Amino acid sequence: MTDKQIHVSVADDAHRFLATDQTVWFSELPSASTEEQLLGLPADQRFAADTEGSDPSTYPGVYGVYPMTLAVPGTGSSVHHVPCAGLTWVGVHPDHRRRGVLTAMMRHHLEQVHETPGQHVSALHASEPAIYGRYGYGLASLELEVSLGRGTTLTAPHLEELAGATTTRMGVRTDPAMPARLRECHQSFAELGTVIGEVDYYARVCQELPEELRDKEPGRVLFAERGGADVGFALFRRTHKWERSRPSGELSVWALVGDPAARLALLRRLVDFDLMGTVKIRATGVEDPMLLWAGGPRSTSDVGTYDSLWVRLVDLPEALMQRSWSARCDVVVDVADRAAPWNEGSWRISVDDSGTATVERTSNPADVQLDVTALGAAYLGGGNLVTMHSAGLVAEHRPGAVAELWRAMRTDVVATAAWMF
Ligand SMILES: CC(C)(COP(=O)(O)OP(=O)(O)OC[C@H]1O[C@@H](n2cnc3c(N)ncnc32)[C@H](O)[C@@H]1OP(=O)(O)O)[C@@H](O)C(=O)NCCC(=O)NCCS
Prior knowledge:
This protein is α+β, with helices and mostly antiparallel strands. The chain has helices spanning 14-24, 34-37, 101-115, 160-164, 178-188, 199-206, 210-213, 260-270, 290-294, 316-322, 372-378, 385-390, 401-409; strands at 7-10, 46-50, 61-73, 79-92, 121-124, 138-139, 142-149, 167-171, 195-197, 220-226, 229-239, 242-243, 246-247, 249-258, 276-284, 302-307, 310-313, 329-336, 345-351, 357-361, 368-371, 395-396. The chain has 13 helices and 22 strands. Strands 1, 2, 3, 4, 5, 6, 9 and 17 form an 8-stranded mixed sheet that branches. The longest helix has 15 residues, at 101-115. Bound molecules: coenzyme A. The site of coenzyme A has 17 residues, from strand 4 and helix 3.
């Protein structure tokens, strides 16, 4: 089978779309309706790859897009929310793998984003890290999974007053108003690298299908409030565990949002639940204050580091001009981009004193030569270009040009981890 025989378009059959996904991800037989299972994924953002004579009950490949925003560097330490295509639900039927189905779907996706006015960036979480670099995605943020023992002392003398003025209270996850409430709070306290979905995406976050739960506690919400307003929340669940007749349950947190004092107050509650032994906090940014409050990595029970968000600059000049920059620079980059050829070639990036970039085509000789993945990795201020140069992943034709570009792209604080989508 060749690439030419694969046609990608909006999936007109939701059952077939789901059946493909369930074959790829070997899910349990679902009890919920098709639309419940597809909650949050708009019908016009479900795509399928088809081939002539394919099995009518499944598609050869599927993918979906959550309409999202990504918090990119703004002026000073602020963030700026830019439209972002949240690539998700990617799967190729086992009978069709390694025949170019994913490649055809990625071409379709990049062309769709390229044609959508105002949308210049795509982002994803990768099931396997080796897949998406070939399509121009760069690893832009990392995630820590931090385990804290019950009763861990968290010290932050200059936050005590504010943390003391913060109350924490359990919310009802199934409350119909919950998705909008979570979204509003997430948006208000977004950090660099945060992705925000539409309200239906938060409805999905609140949704728990019976087969996903089985013997688990339903997910819980813990809000932090100050002066009558939400200033943060945590999403978590507890799992019973007894060791030698002693309670040693695990409290698993998959979202911790809010200003630093709210997060401190929430964490103090979370490490103090009865019958728990360990609190495991996922989606923690590498510069999250949690490790400082706890006293460093060895004061925790464990810290694991994983890749978080992969970012793809689909329209390179527009994407680069959408963010603020940290320093002046005037650098010509020669960009390789096999999957989005409209980005290939030389671009002059000039940044003025206000942190505004102008990115234009140029025929001037290149100072720096790189793949579009390097710029995706550096887009949120992480992915150090100087290190990539030393590692032989970026080439420099004018001495100092890589550092000049990097000083303009880096940020005061590294991007946080993005929620799973
Ligand atoms: C990952 C997956 C989507 C790839 O689909 P596919 O149609 O087989 O991919 P293609 O045939 O278009 O392969 C494109 C290239 O990617 C490579 N590739 C594909 N999957 C890969 C993987 N898991 N690891 C490393 N390379 C991979 C192929 O070798 C091929 O390389 P080439 O261009 O040098 O020949 C498919 O294997 C799958 O559905 N896996 C399970 C679900 C999953 O992981 N989805 C991704 C969610 S983020």
